[in-house]
Amino acid sequence: MQRSINDFFRSRRGIIAVGAIIGILGPTLQKLGNPPNMGICVACFERDITGALGLHRAATVQYLRPEIFGFVLGSLIAALLFREFKARGGSAPIIRFILGFFGMIGSLVFLGCPWRAWFRLAGGDINGLIGLIGLTTGILIGIVFLKKGYSLGRSNKTHAAAGYVFPLIMAALLLLAIFRPTFGPENSGPIFSSESGPGSKHAPLLISLAFGLLIGFLAQRTRFCTVGAVRDIVLLKDFHLGSGILSLGISAFLMNLIYGQFHPGFQGMPIAHSNVIWNLLGMILAGLAYCLAGGCPGRQLFLSGEGDTDAGIFVLGMITGAAFAHNFGLAGSPDSVVDGVLKIGGISSNGMIMVGIGLLVCVLIGLTMREKVQ
Fold this sequence. Notes:
- Helices cover 64% and strands 3% of the residues.
- The protein has helices at residues 2-10, 12-31, 42-52, 66-81, 93-110, 114-122, 127-147, 160-179, 205-222, 226-236, 240-259, 276-293, 297-305, 309-327, 349-368, and strands at residues 88-89, 156-157, 336-338, 341-343.
- The model has no long low-confidence stretch (mean pLDDT 95).
- The chain crosses the membrane at residues 12-29, 63-82, 94-117, 129-146, 158-179, 199-219, 239-259, 271-292, 313-331, 351-369.
- Keywords: Membrane, Transmembrane, Transmembrane helix.
């Protein structure tokens, strides 16, 4: 029985089915209360968690997102059931932290991770296409380094307890989200929760958690990854993962049509800006960082659930990047309507400088972390 299940998840039908399920669940979460043209965004949700813990104080983006905890715990459950939980680490953890940091910076300049780029496009936001072009460009740059021998080295087997640390952190945060304890006088400290803006928009907690657990379980079984899809197509001419990503996009588009959530446009789209240059450059940075780290933000969460401590370090780097992005004014600002006039959003000069620094750092990592090609 277990073998037949494994065979299904490894098949083309399996990855297409999982992509379709994720594409259905994203718009459904949006329908149930999650932010528009988002449904699921790993970078945005980690940013909201960062704010809920008080690591940044942008009041509109603070909420303990149960989907993220579900991704990790669902992956953990799948790994344990199928005997794939393997505690491991030691593959250039500090470099992975830096890549996670700049991957988050790039995503928040664009205002979305690779998953949200697809969900934005499926909702009619043409800027999602710009983001996907930037993402692909960044991945292609990363592939050049891979061909030149780039490697972060092998991870090594470690104590099982180490592999459980990150899932236990996610479980602890989930308990905080469920029981909502108060800290500090007059609830003046974390856990924070937005009263307006994207952080105030969320589906019911138990539904979000259930969807997250399901996605985490299925993605762990299929190795679902947006960045890996492009990498495999270019390096191996393998369209296996790519078929799952395409399935996600198509099913999300159809669900948005069914829910009446498809609204095509370019300017003034929900939680998005239409500055083409910085949408493009932000996602080039994100794509390059994610490629060098070996997977998209979602994939890093799934890996951390199956015992990969290096992936956990990458996620902590993303959380740190989210704190810096909002504390130092680096994140993108969405288009807005002021006195009846559309004001185009974008990023600050600080954000522009940080994108440049991020690209430089990632290129240097790609050039220096190389093994001799035999």
